[in-house]
Structures are given as C-alpha cells and as structure tokens.
Design a protein that fits this description.
The chain is mainly α. The protein is built from ten helices and two strands; from the N terminus they run αααααββααααα. 62% of the residues lie in helices and 2% in strands. It is elongated, with a radius of gyration of 37 Å. The N and C termini lie far apart (92 Å). The model has no long low-confidence stretch (mean pLDDT 88).
C-alpha cells in the first residue's frame, strides 16, 4: 500500500515536471515566435523605409538629371553663341593692343601730323575705341542672361566668363594696378604720385604732366555707358554692333570732335563714349603708363580666353598661355623698339622706359594669374 502511494506521488511529480517543462517550452516557443515576428516586422519596416529612401534618391537623381539636362540646353543655347562672339572680340581687342604697340614703335603715336590717333582721318581712333569696348560689351550680354542660367554646370564656360569679367574690371583698375603688388612706376621727376583731378582738365596737359594729372582709367558707370553705346537691338535681345554698324551709326562723325555733327543718334553715342574718348585722346604708352598696364592686363585676359576655347586645355596650361613671360609674341607688345621714334624726348631724362615696359608686362602676368587663382578659390568643385 505504501509502495503504491509512493509510486503515485512519483508519477504525479513526474507528470507535474513534464507539465512544467512543457509549459516552459511552450512559453519559450511563444516568446521566440513573438520575437521572430517582431524582428520580421522590423525588418520589413526597415526594408520599406530603405525602398522609400532609394525611391526618393532615385527620384531626386532623376529630377537633378532632368534639371541639369534642361539647364544645360538653355545654357548652351543662350551662352555658346555669345562665347564664340567673345572669342572673336577678344582676339580683335588683343590685335588692336598689339597694333598700338606697333604704331608706337614706328613713331605713329608721336606728336605731329602723322599721328594715327590725332591725325585728320578718324578711322584709326574709331577702330581702337570699338575694338577695345567690343569684348566688354559681349561680357555684359552674357552677364545679363545669368539670372536665368546656371553657369556652374559648365566650368570652362564659367571660367571664360570670369576672365572676361576681369578684363572688364581692368579698365577701372588704374589705381589698383599701381599698388604695392606690382612693379613701381615713376610719375614725375619730383616723385609725383598718380593723382588725377576728379574732372579732366579742359585742355590737354603737357606730356610730362599727363603721366600723373590725366585720368588713365574709367569709373564703372562710364564703362557701362560705353558698353551700352555699342549695343544694338536684335529682336527682343541685343547684340554688339560690328565696326561697320558702329561707323554707320556715327554717320561720319569724328568721335574726337565736339562740333555736334552727325545728328542726335551720333551725339548720344559720342556723349556715352566721352570718357573712353578722353582716355585715348593723345594716347601714348609713355604719356599714359597706367593705361598701357590696363591694356596689357586685358590682353593677357584675352589670351587666356583664346587659349581656353574648346575646353581641351587644362587651367594651368591656359594660365601659362596667357602670360607674356616666355611667350613667342612678347616682342609684339613692346612699344619701344629701338627708341628712335617711339620715346618722347621730354621724358627720357627721368624715366627708364625699358624697365617700365618690363614692369607693365609683369603686371599683366600677375593680374591674369590672380584671376585664375581667385576663380579656383571661389568656385572650387563640390565633392
């Protein structure tokens, strides 16, 4: 009897143990299944978030591609024709600056009836004014379109526009181009400084005085007026007048004259160009050394624009091609030559023109180098 009871208790205990084990197993299995379900749910949720994120990224990438495609189409349609015109105008201006050096070497900017700028025929003076303003006018047209265009999409085009901007700014940089960054200039035998009066003198100063009393650059507003005088309507837009159109608009007017000839249209052009006309009235590199620095700085910018055309050259190659140092055509920008017909006798006693010309070329090199460095710093590629 006792053995039976003991056996029953053992059986009951075993049954209870089995029940507990089964219950524990069931609970563990249930909890494990719940964790698995939660993990699956979390994985599925994370997968959905990833899918959504990838979809958003794909949509954003597609939107960016669509934007860039359309923006590039607009950019190329609007600015590539102007880029070509800028190249042509830049080459024309560079050739005109080279020609001014040639004329000076030959004695054709010396005082007298054979002076190409002051002689009876106004053609040369008019051609100089037109050629030097034309690339600045193309730059202005490019700039007007930038509110509707994304220039960052084409780095070569962006750089071209920036270098053209530096050529534009050079014309108002007469004080900047004689500061301590550049080789020094002598303005008079008594250590005069460059201090032109606010208003130009009513009569032309003596050539010894012109170096420091005649304004050798323009204000920004004066450049803007000169540029605007060279623009003509072209449908809803504008374009730069060719020389023939410019001469026709003047109606035979001599820009150097103040007689009011040529009608209202010609008078308006002449008024807008008056500061530019005064800048080159009786111009000679020896009498206007700062203006000559400006012209060489612009020439260096135009050389860069020409070297970069087509986008095949690296920026360092373009910057090197813009420099006068070591250039094969450096001598073409030398206005002195043998000095027999080019150097004004009244200035030779206190000006070393050889050093001054070397300093002007070095100034131009430094100016264009600074332009490339500033562009690389301001507009460094992202990523």
């Amino acid at each position: 009897m006792a053995g039976d009871v003991q056996s029953a208790w053992v059986a009951a205990a075993a049954s209870l143990a089995v029940s507990f084990v089964s219950l524990g197993t069931a609970i563990w299995t249930t909890r494990r299944a719940e964790r698995a379900r939660q993990e699956q749910a979390a994985t599925a949720e994370e997968l959905e978030r990833l899918k959504a994120s990838l979809g958003e990224q794909a949509d954003a990438a597609k939107a960016k591609r669509d934007y860039e495609y359309e923006a590039r189409k607009r950019l190329y349609a609007e600015l590539y024709p102007l880029s070509y015109h800028l190249l042509e105008a830049a080459l024309g201006a560079q050739n005109r600056i080279r020609n001014l050096a040639l004329a000076t070497r030959g004695g054709f900017l010396a005082a007298g009836p054979d002076n190409w700028l002051t002689g009876g025929d106004p053609y040369y003076f008019t051609a100089v004014v037109h050629a030097l303003i034309a690339p600045l006018a193309v730059y202005e047209l490019m700039t007007r379109k930038l509110t509707l265009l994304d220039l960052t999409l084409d780095r070569d085009l962006h750089r071209q526009h920036y270098i053209a901007r530096m050529a534009y700014q050079a014309l108002r940089s007469d004080f900047d181009l004689i500061d301590a960054r550049y080789p020094p200039l002598v303005f008079g035998p008594d250590k005069q400084s460059y201090a032109p009066p606010e208003a130009r003198p009513t009569s032309m100063p003596d050539e010894r005085e012109q170096r420091h009393t005649w304004r050798q650059g323009l204000y920004s507003g004066q450049i803007s007026q000169a540029v605007d005088a060279l623009l003509t309507p072209d449908g809803a837009a504008a374009r730069v007048m060719t020389y023939a159109e410019f001469a026709k608009a003047l109606g035979g007017t001599d820009l150097r004259a103040d007689d009011g000839s040529g009608g209202a249209g010609a008078a308006a052009i002449r008024t807008a160009l008056r500061p530019m006309i005064d800048l080159f009235r009786d111009f000679h590199p020896a009498r206007r050394p700062v203006t000559w620095r400006i012209l060489l700085a612009q020439a260096a910018c135009y050389r860069a624009i020409a070297a970069a055309q087509g986008g095949q050259a690296m920026p360092k190659q373009v910057a090197l091609a813009a420099r006068f140092e070591g250039a094969s055509d450096r001598a073409a920008f030398d206005w002195i030559g043998d000095g027999q017909r080019s150097v004004p006798p009244a200035l030779t006693a206190w000006v070393d023109f050889g050093a001054e010309q070397a300093g002007a070329l070095a100034t131009a090199d430094r100016y264009v180098e600074t332009a490339f460095r500033d562009f690389a710093t301001r507009y460094a590629p992202l990523g």
